[in-house]
Amino acid sequence: MKTAVSKKSAVKPSARKGTARKTPVPQARPFQYKGLDLYCDSVSLAPLAEQYGTPLYVYSADQISSRFQLFQKAFAARPHTVCYAVKANSSLSILRLLGSQGAGFDIVSGGELERVRKAHKPSLRRVVFSGVGKQAWEIDAALKADILQFNVESEMELDLLAQRAEQLGIRARFALRVNPDVFAETHPYISTGLSEHKFGIAITKARAIYRSAAKFKWLEPYGVSVHIGSQIRKVDPFAAALERVASLVRYLRRDGHDIRAIDAGGGLGIDYSDAPFDAAHQVERYAAALEKGLGAESAHLLLEPGRFLVAQAGALVTRVLVAKKNGSKNFLITDAAMNDLIRPALYHAHHEIVPVRKPSGKATLTADIVGPVCESGDFFARDRVIARVKPGDLVALLDAGAYGMTQASNYNSRGRAAEILVEGSQAKLIRRRETMRDQLATEIL
Ligand SMILES: *Cc1c(COP(=O)(O)O)cnc(C)c1O
Question: 388: domain CATH number?
């Protein structure tokens, strides 16, 4: 199989020659102040909010590309394909941005397959299909699209895949997603690699399943895959998982299966706090951990980063509607809510919240920053010390590029936000704000 990696893009020539030997550590975030105003790269956010309204998601294309290139560089020594996890942010323009640079995609539904097709059709052959409950129509669509690999999560699914492949006369390349029973420290809702979780197939059962699948001519045992969870900051669990996978691959090859791909999944975490964060270093540590786990086992390495590529590229810009005090507590109520960004409510996630225009003076305020939705769980931050902003001011929730817009809903009959992609000095509307007409379009009275 041809790899998506271009040797050219892996190492920038300028990094090798030239006089300036030290490349500066890139900023963790593209959102930086110029004077008193917050910018995304070279675009000021306040005028964008005026023009397009709030809440507004703003993303930096440069940041997404450079994170992707960090992966390309860190894994340059091994044939690999970075299959961006679509569920982190599935906006078509972002998929096209990555697809056109050679990324593959990790999808979890037929809907995501259609998004890849629409955004960048040539990338379909670099798609891996994960998920514990694939339906026949989704499998059919993926077979016809000739995707790279099905990551199969149960014996029942493997039977269904065999049946659909035979029916359509299309051979299915598959990997079993094995459950390595490795603990990774993260929020329990996004931990997936323990035997108590619904994901994958016990690694101890895998060999027997490959053996029986190999007898079936419409199934091609192509790879082994693993994914232990999300927002994992320590890299040791990745090494441990890969070590178990590599050992399985050794056995499978001895059993006569031509295993070509090892899919290491995604899950590399970022730093949501305002501590300094060296993304390049983190990817290098991650790559070293995977190499350690793989040992001498050669294979085409598939990687499925989602959050790491897009989280820090995005911010959710929102306007403060109301300031109020209940008892001893201050509340700032914004026009964004949990339906726009559910991470704080769902995972108790932390997002830095900063003013779009710095207020004069250094005065701060301790407040709960909350949305207008009728739920006490509708909060972005509790007892947060923040610059003294007032109603009418704009604030930005940082690191909102992953699992933000993709988890947005119409709860409280609120329309979904608009999205902007900043490319250099240009800001492009990539999704218009949802209207009431859009919301009512599917209902029958
Ligand atoms: C969600 C998911 C990913 C991406 O996880 P991140 O933490 O965003 O990198 C990759 N692979 C699978 C199978 C997933 O479910």
Answer: 2.40.37.10
Question: In sequence order, which residues have a C-beta less than 8 Å from that of residue 245 and are 6 or more positions away?
Answer: 178, 180, 203, 224, 226, 262, 264, 293
Q: In the predicted model, is pLDDT for residue 199 greater than 70?
A: yes
End-to-end CA distance of the chain: 52
Q: Which of 20, 296, 374, 445 is catalytic?
A: 374
Domain boundary among 309, 329, 351: 309
Interval 239-252 mean pLDDT: 97
Average pLDDT over residues 115-141: 98
Rounded Cα gap, residues 228 and 266, in angstroms:
8
Q: How confident is the model at residue 354 (pLDDT cuts 50, 70, 90)?
A: very high
Between CA 57 and CA 431 the distance in angstroms is 9
18 located within any domain = no
CA 376 to centroid of ligand 1, rounded, Å: 29
Position 7 confidence tier, pLDDT thresholds 50, 70, 90:
very low
374 is catalytic: yes
Shared-domain flag, residues 300 and 325: no
The answer to whether residue 271 scores a pLDDT higher than 60 is yes
Helix, strand, or coil (residue 122): helix
Q: Which atom of ligand 1 is nearest to the CA of 307?
A: 8
Query: What share of the chain has pLDDT > 70, as a percent?
Result: 94
The CA 229 to ligand 1 mean position distance, Å, reads 7
Distance 131 CA to ligand 1 centre (A): 10
